[in-house]
Amino acid sequence: MAKRVTGPEIEKLIQLLAKVPGLGPRSARRAALHLVKKKEQLLGPLADAMGEAHRKVRICSCCGNVDTIDPCTVCTDERRDQSVIIVVEDVSDLWALERAGAMNAAYHVLGGTLSPLDGVGPEDLNIRGLIDRVSQGGVRELIIAVNATVEGQTTAHYITDQLQGLDVRITRLAHGVPVGGELDYLDEGTLTAALRARTTI
Fold first, then answer.
1. pTM of this structure
2. Angle between helices 8-17 and 25-37 (to 10 degrees)
3. CB within 8 Å of 22: residues ≥ 6 apart
4. 20 to 30 A Cα–Cα from 18, which one of 64, 143, 169, 192?
5. Which residues sit opposite 38 in a β-bridge?
């Protein structure tokens, strides 16, 4: 059994940091040590920022984004085209699309994908909220921007089925060769999707 070399407070900090995606036990120890060494410059301000985030962060009741206001900044932005909704799996996907700056549209966060094997059904996701938004009218296009996985495609098909009969155009992200990608390094699924989605030059 390994001997404890720090007090319980630092051990707890390491254990909590290890739960952050991308940080394992070793990375968490390094991060904790760095924070403790920079106590005044980093640890104090970080603790204050986390406390403030804990008090103020809300889930947007309209789209599912995280923000300090509800409805969120995206939903209340009058410059956005609210008639186009981009459907994403998670908030991180919303943020990634916003960083790209490709479209000035509204969003809807599902909170995951359908996965019967994992016990995730339609009632576990924010699908009902999406159907309600489209049913209210004013939405001309729904862009389904879920991951190109079996679960993502299952979710896309389910949403499409649920919106049958409503006057809305449903599209999805193109799948295929990434910009700067070399064919030799791509998997068969990506190459097949790229060939099927070929366009005229």
1. 0.82
2. 130
3. none
4. 64
5. none
Q: Measure the CA–CA gap between 45 and 137, rounded to whole angstroms.
A: 45
Average pLDDT over residues 43-69: 95
Each residue's pLDDT tens digit, 140-150: 999 999 988 88
Question: Measuring CA to CA, which residue among 134, 158, 133 is closest to residue 146?
Answer: 158
The answer to whether residues 162 and 107 touch, using CB atoms and an 8 Å cutoff, is: no
Q: What domains can you pick out in the chain, each with its CATH number?
A: 8-35+42-56 (1.10.8.420), 73-172 (3.40.1360.10)
> Using an 8 Å Cβ cutoff, are 131 and 163 in contact?
yes
Q: Which amino acid is at 83?
A: S
* C-alpha span between 181 and 19 (Å, rounded): 33
Q: Where are the beta strands (DSSP E) in the chain?
A: 58-59, 66-67, 81-88, 105-109, 141-144, 169-172
Residues 6+ apart with CB under 8 A from 98: 74
pLDDT at 160 over 80: yes
